């Protein structure tokens, strides 16, 4: 009689144990490449490949910052970070303004051509940038924008996906609220800036973080249009550092770690919006 | 002033505001998406060398005819399709498995979620450089080969053998990307009402049966969405082969986008590269339309 509940308890314990064990094993496999990267970045060059077959390869026993100092002396980090944060910052400022007002008009205003524009926005969402990069490059060179900030910023301000996210959010704002503002004598444009924007912080934060991450990953386009060494973005700088003599693996790993820092800071502060943004794209899509 | 004219004045104000609001975005979209798209198709029927921009000749469909007989193009298409066909199911299944592991609240769940998501916190360039080092064929310097030889296996020339190079990129990409799709699945799982599981469990369904008959149907639209975005992402593969293998060995990791880049920017065959780009565009659009069709047909 007493054996049954006990074995039930035991099996519950066992399944809980297996559940944790599974998560821990998979979790360790997932983070081990990144752990190795961090550990190698802190090791003297001679130590990095010294004990590959032991667990100690993940532990920087003689930890040193010399690799980081080497990166600082060989790579112009200040310029690289300035280039990167400046162009992404500019894109994001214009992105949030231009796409939100467009999304708002598509959600709340009646005008000729609305259906057409909405369809255009939805259709262009599937257009891969890679299919148009050749003529876009020609366009940039005709405008004289190659190797300038404009080439990185201007073509990427308007984003169909952002317009769509804004439109979906604004669509759910009750019309009564807008009516009330209109009766108070607010023009439609003032209503948007004074009434709608203050209650829409979530959607702005979500679009901000999603677009920040996607531009943080930019590689191909900056690589095509920014050829000057002092124009490089962080991804380009890291990639070229990887191929530059002398190849010091510790310094390479340190460069990779440094390049990830802004993204990690962003994630820590914007985690809620980032995760919600990823999730909501799935539900609405 | 009558109420009616007041209303019509408001309507007019609204129309003006609407145009003020949509024009910036529409102008930018037309200038930097629609116009280049049209030019991709336009240039694709010209003989256009980037070094000689004054010497552009109309050649009709000759670029496309040449494409048909171009074995490098077929190889690139084959590689792209291979990558997509393998990486999409693997990455999506991995993401779903991870989501199931961390879908319930338990002590430490946030830590495990962050662990699975962590490869997303760097960039693809960073991941590609890191794994080039990890994949090193020498077990004394490559972490993965060191592990393999310790476990008694032979070491593998991951990136320098044409049979394994693409698979190595697939493995790495699935590891990097799964955390993102896991987040989408987590949201989908939260949308399945708990009562459905209770009802199934009262009916005596095993955990696996619950997964088959409650979880999977409940996630249907999420699964389709995840497959679609993963597929489009996969078709655009470029950064990983560019950083890790430069398209080699023996062109085994050269993809369509890589081929557009080599033809257009390295060899300067702009017209021909535009023809490849146009074909690439048609493939991606057809794929997304087909997926949409499937999605709306079953919903």
Question: What would CATH call the architecture of chain B?
Answer: Orthogonal Bundle
Give the H and E element order of chain A: HHHHHHHHHHHHHH
Mean pLDDT of chain B: 90
Low-confidence stretches of chain A: none
The helix/strand class of chain A is mainly alpha
Number of separate helices of chain B: 13
In CATH, what is the class of the largest domain in chain A? Mainly Alpha
What is the typical, i.e. mean, pLDDT of chain A? 90
CATH topology group of chain B: MetI-like fold
Biggest beta sheet summary of chain B: 2 strands, antiparallel
Beta-strand content estimate of chain B: under 5%
Task: Quickly name the level 1 CATH class of chain B.
Answer: Mainly Alpha
Proportion of residues in β-strands of chain A: under 5%
Multimeric state: heterodimer
What structural class is derived from the secondary structure elements of chain B?
mainly alpha
What does this structure look like?
The complex is a heterodimer of chains A (285) and B (299). By secondary structure, chain A is mostly helical. Chain A folds into 2 domains: 3-64, no CATH class; 70-284, Orthogonal Bundle (MetI-like fold), CATH 1.10.3720. Chain A has helices spanning 3-41, 45-48, 66-74, 77-108, 114-124, 133-142, 149-153, 160-171, 175-183, 188-196, 201-216, 220-225, 234-242, 249-284. The N and C termini of chain A lie far apart (54 Å). The model of chain A has no long low-confidence stretch (mean pLDDT 90). By secondary structure, chain B is mostly helical. Chain B is 72% helix and 1% strand. Chain B contains 13 helices and 2 strands, in the order H-E-E-H-H-H-H-H-H-H-H-H-H-H-H. In chain B, helix 3 packs antiparallel against helix 10 (220-235), helix 7 runs antiparallel to helix 10 and helix 12 runs antiparallel to helix 13. Chain B is flat. The chains are: A mainly alpha (285), B mainly alpha (299).
